[in-house]
Amino acid sequence: MNPSADVQTLPLLPLRNTVLFPGLLMPFSVGRPTSIAAAEAALATEEKEVVLVAQRSATTENPRREDLFDVGTKAVIKKMARPTPNGMELLVLGEERVRLESLVSVDPYLRAAVAPMPVQSDTGPEVEALKRAIIDLAVRAMALAQPGAAIDFNRIFAETEDPLRLVYLLASVLTLDLPKEQALLEANTRAEALRLMHSYLAQEIEILELRTKIADQARSEMTREQREYLLRQQLRAIQQELGEQNPEQAEVDALRERLKNKNLPDDVRSEAERELSRLERLPAAAPEHSLIRGYLDFILELPWMERTEDYLDIQKAREILDQDHYDLDDVKKRILEHLGVMKLNPEAKAPILCFVGPPGVGKTSLGQSIARAIGRKFERMSLGGLHDEAELRGHRRTYIGAMPGRIIQAIRRAGAKNPVLMLDEVDKLGRDFRGDPAAALLEILDPEQNKSFRDNYLDLPFDLSSVFFITTANSLATIPGPLLDRMEMLTLEGYTSEEKVEIAKRYLIPKQVKEAGLKPDQIEFPDPTLETIIARYTREAGLRQLERQIARIARKVALRFAEGRTERVVVSQDELPDMLGPEIFMLEKVRRSLPPGVATGLAWTESGGEVLYIEATLLPDGKGLTLTGQLGDVMQESVRTAQSYVWAHADELGIDREKFSKAGVHIHVPAGAIPKDGPSAGITAAAALASLYTGNPVRGDTAMTGEITLTGLVLPIGGIKEKVLAARRAGIHRIILPKPNEKDLRLVPDYARKDLEFIFVEKIEDVIAAAIPALTERLALTT
What we know:
The protein is an alpha/beta fold and 783 residues long. Strands 1-3-4-5-6 form a 5-stranded mixed β-barrel. A 5-stranded parallel beta sheet has the order 8-9-12-7-13, with helices on both faces. It has a 4-stranded mixed beta sheet with strand order 16-17-19-18. Strand 10 (453-454) and strand 11 (461-462) form a beta hairpin. Helix 17 packs across helix 19. It is extended, with a radius of gyration of 41 Å. It starts with 7 loop residues before the first strand and ends with a helix.
């Protein structure tokens, strides 16, 4: 007999989270376009036959062969209805088990090749025993699931002679998950199916018994609460007879007294009195009683009219700011400007500032210092990772566990309506299906709107216009434009090495010496030691790593004194490897004499400026340009622009054009493990290529930075202060800068400017003439 003779090709309907068993009717809805097409194809035939196979995952929208189980049921569509244009209701009758051989097509609907898969007709004592045991368990389960039902389940189950049909009937009645139903359908013998159903029923009975036990406990709890309510009513009647005040009334009277003495806006007072009247009418056991009580407590705790008096002594404020923070002159000036405005116009709105800078430069501590300088309360809240808008606006009181938003809670903690409120990490706000917190901040940080801010929990207008908002961020890239527009940006640059030494001596060392239990006269950090720690053991724009290294040294010195040492410890540079381990960072050594093809550049990093060398060499018989050193796209384009310029002006520079056609060029920028990008290496690359092709070296005491164009213009760049200080630290005496950057030298400290010679250029010819002495005279003649 040919096995393929029994194979049929029928439309296939994939089922989600259910299985159709042979011999049973099942209604279900069809909504997917492919499934509707399959049902319509089956209805168009005389037999109206269709195959129903369960999906392995209910989330799969367009299942393929691997998404379907291997065993399904061939069925006949008995009824069809169309309640909606895009949906269909079917009533199907399962006929027999089938094995899914393959999917014949998937478009416009699934068609499958299936083969019959009959169950073996096994009989005997085991099958009969399992059947009777299952009937007993089923009757017990039904009694637990539907106590008091007048249905004789024992008779219904006993009249079902076929054990397999009994299993399928029970499976359709019980709440089984998909894997269990599919296992029953795939059972190849009656005994196997009966054993599976026996284990499922036993487990179901355990769950039902536990549910009954929990329900009985809840019923007894409810009875106890009713008894307590009756006793409480009797107690109230006794207190009234004795002329005593009951506790609930005493609580309401206390709230009314607090409300009378509280200075509130008129609309807030009327709302509070209305809620107090509701509270008075409610019994103490009512669920709303505690909610209204908590709401009234919060209203009475908020500083609706209370505010702290601002310190308008500008000289005193300047002293406090200078005492707490070194440098940061722009931020300090802005705070003093606000104090000056407040002195002349007390009704002026508080500014909304955003401190932008790398980690560890003192953004958060600066907020505390500002609050101390102007005499206001300080509250801080972190917005990093915040996804739920309700965290800021609060939850509506209709929800269980509703709370006010974090903004209003911070005002309550401050106890004044005009605190300094710091919103930390505003650039790390998230957003998801619960809302966009950044959108909520648009109202909070807008002085024209926040004077009547409504928290969802309070649902009353609260004036936030007196709050001094300060936000902090490491980057502006992730902050939405409308939110940026509401804030005044103040950039906190990274500290230079000289500034770090001064900050360490003024703040970090005294703090860590005290933390270690030492006295100031027991330990000393000379300036060269601090400079070595900063250069060789830290690489950051801020001060956190430096403070950790100072703390490590202080702990090691504290151990020496704990072991009996009495002499003062002067931490020398030679002791640093023993205390802090091997040096972590190595500075780029200045090359005093440069071979042709090498030029000194300057780079900006988050931890400060760096000296950067660009090395170029010819590749005989090579072709094109090879770039190494982890260069980003912008930097690669700058190098190619430099090569194109040098090539185009080969005659002016005295370069043999054959070098371009007969040799390739390899440009490398150490260190190779550090990614680099940006346009400011353009003039350095041009100088290196000009040096390479002419065979004349670049001056070793000269560094340069600037962007170039294909026509030979030198454009301005950023990070001038950090780059100039890096060149000075490296012992470089001459710096070539774009002419438009001349104004930025005012940011460089005087002590650094006086040691350096600056050459300002507008064209690449000026760069090459200043950097390569051998070409100076030639370019002057050409010009």
